[in-house]
Amino acid sequence: LKMSWLCFYLPLHFLMVAFLCHSIKAPTTSSQQSFKTDLFNFYHSLILADGKETTIHLLKDIPRRYYFVLEEGRVLAPFSITVTPCDVPIEWSILVYKPSPNFPEKATQGDHDTQEVPKSQKAPGMVFTIFNYKGNSVETYMGMSSHSALYLLEFLSTERDTHITVYLTTDTTSGHLYPELPTDPRIDVIGVGPTTVTLTWKHSPSVLQHRESIQYCLLVNEKHNYKSLCAAETAIRSSGMKLPPTLALSLSPYLLEPQQVMILSNSELSIINKVSSGEVRQVCMGTKNTYTVPHLSPSTQYYFDVFIVNLLTNASAAYTGTFARTLEEPEPKVTELKDGKVIHVVLDGKKQKFYSLQYQARHKKIQFTFQLCQGQVRVQITRNGKTVASENLSGLRYFSLKGKLLDTYLVQLRSTEESNSSVKVEASPHFHKPLFPLLPESLKIKSFSKLRTCRSVTIAWLGTQEESKYCVYRRRIEEDQIWRELQSADRCSGPESRPKSEKVLCKYFYDLNLQRAVTTETIKGLEAGTFYLFDIYLFGPSGIPVRYHSKVVKTRKKC
Question: What structural domains and CATH numbers belong to the chain?
Fold first, then answer.
């Protein structure tokens, strides 16, 4: 008996042996055998760190056990345990070992012996289950003990291998590891559009106390809500995505994977993960508690989760997630096309919306003409709901179609790049009266390097079998402006927008033999070692110009 009592008061790292001391002396009844099993579980457990978040990996159907001991001598010993499942639901429980009250107390001062206790009263102690839970929610147990006790935590995953985080603290007065949620932790949806959803939520008390180290992070996805930040990260990884360890601390460009896109706008940093189940969007917006999520798809249900993150401890708490369905895209405005009338359409590349034109045929044969002015444009033409043409435009393009009287044609245009694009469109049944001039095989301008001098350059271009007017313009340009000028050139703009000082000459020519339908011009009066931008405009019977591809030539520096 003396040995048994001494074992209970051994230091912490010998405590497991102490319990075995009790079990060895206990009678081998069925109840005592059960108790020895519980002590065996204690003995094969790890110590759970106090005041630190611990990540625990669980294998399917294999329990993991951790223990901790409350300090001896405290009148009341408070403690709390927070368990965060990072994937599937788990089972976890808290057990406590308490020595039998029949064990003698310590002797009075000066007496190191213990009073004998009859054998019938000897009992090694009891193990009680004080808490158990099954699910995937973040759960916190808060307890208070009035005596020294040893606690065992047991964790089990029955679905698949997973991991969890566990936080134990016996110091409940010096603050919290996790940011504090407001009394009402719900997220409110205050606005919904076809491509946007506006959210708001009540401020966390932690924001008011530690504004510099606290921030809100929003997660948007199309599957479901997540009850913790680590659950969201695990789900993204399981989709084949390598995600940096923590949302709040992983917003550095060098950490991004090829499937991730980072967007920095108005001091807000977003990461978009391209996963098989759709986009998973992460946005950290500092301490703002209202946010409008942009660039969503119409008529789509999205799930929104807000996490309050402590940047110093890397710990987070989750608001109650919400969801919303974006509105349907309104029917695009349809512009009516009239015979022989040219419409200039400017397309917004950022919105990627279709621009629709409708034409009702008054003849069986119809010709659509498209002149690409800027950017890249895709066109789709349908007749009575059936697609008859679809392609990316380049330069000047004609579509000759044959149908029935009063057929309805719908022309849809959209930019295929993020910058704005523009195109001119015309529909007409009059094939014999083309709106645009007859074009040569190539609209390129050629320069002759050997004919360059310090004061002149010689250029050449192709003509057609139809007599047409050609006007040449030139402009001095700096070397660092060349690329931007060539990329942004409006191929539909005419010479009327240019200063008269840039005009070099206008001439008429043609040749029935296309092999000889070429002309040259030597442009004089130039400065040595200077870049010049040359443009040529071709005018047809209708007066609508077609612009050749701009050409940059540099005069010789020394002659």
Answer: 44-99+125-169 (2.60.120.510), 178-244+277-330 (2.60.40.10), 334-428 (2.60.120.680), 445-554 (2.60.40.10)
